[in-house]
Amino acid sequence: MTRSPFSLPRFAATCRARLLELLFPPACVVCGEAIPEATCAAFCWTCLEEFQEFFPPYCPGCGAAVPHPIEEGKTCGHCGGEKTRYDRAVTLAPYDGLLREQLLRAKKPTGEQVAVALAHRLLERHGEALRAAELDVVCPVPMHWRRRLRRMTNSPSTMASVIAQQLGVPLASGLLVRRRYTVPQFQLSPTDRQANVRGAFRVAAGHKLQSAHVLLVDDILTTGATVTQATRALRIAGAAKVTVVAVARSYSDR
């Protein structure tokens, strides 16, 4: 067996990282409590328990926990029972309580650290299944440039970047384009949400999705209207499969 050659820069970087951990121990991004062991998802166990994360079996339409496995081609009652345009959805927990607070925080320019931590937590729970899905590309649900200019950030883009890097799958942040400005979905009824985003997305010129499996990243999944229309654009461009991943599943209009 041959030993790998000693690398002074690598050794120095490791020492520097250990020193920083000693001087500045990792802390929960929510409450500031020290985390005993450094993890990419910077949440303490007390805060994680408040997320009330989903456990299997899951609904393929929204990723939420269901009492019994659902037969192929069907979804849970909250999803209407019918198959979705996308192949399946993966979500972490209900959009409520502490998780809701953190997702709203992640939408602000100062909340990027929270968005990163949430993406890592989602991967801790579902990374194995996503790695086995043979994904070809990761893309976020895009924000219209006018809203992006006002918010100065887009949490799905931050999350998609983390997820792509950790899964080792190419990130195509400009793959989808929001072709027109739309009213924020939370302001509308479920019926109006469908009309609001109908035809709102297109695949940018120069992108080819021949038989590709696309991982579409969003922060919150409610009626599924937005990801359904985004999936429609991806299918028209040639995508064979679309898996949706979102941090939270909302059951209300909040």
Task: Give a written overview of the molecule.
It is a single chain. The protein has 254 residues and is an alpha/beta fold. Helix content is 37%, strand content 14%. The strands form two sheets. Strands 1-6-5-2 form a four-stranded parallel sheet. It has a two-stranded antiparallel sheet with strand order 3-4. β5 (213-221), α8 (225-236) and β6 (241-249) form a beta-alpha-beta unit. It is globular and about 50 Å long.
Q: Name the average pLDDT.
A: 86
Fraction of residues in β-strands = 5-15%
Q: How many angstroms separate the termini?
A: 60 Å
> Based on DSSP secondary structure assignment, what is the total number of beta strands?
6
Total number of helical segments? Answer: 8
CATH topology (fold) name: Rossmann fold
Share of helix, binned = 25-40%
What is the spatial order of strands in the main beta sheet?
1-6-5-2
Order of helices and strands: HHEHHEHHEHEEHE
What does the radius of gyration come to? Answer: 19 Å
Q: What structural class should be given to the helix and strand makeup?
A: alpha/beta
| Structural domains: how many | 1
Q: What CATH architecture would you give?
A: 3-Layer(aba) Sandwich
Main beta sheet strand tally, sense and closure = 4 strands, parallel
pLDDT < 50 stretches: 19-23
Shape: globular
Any idea of the CATH class? Alpha Beta
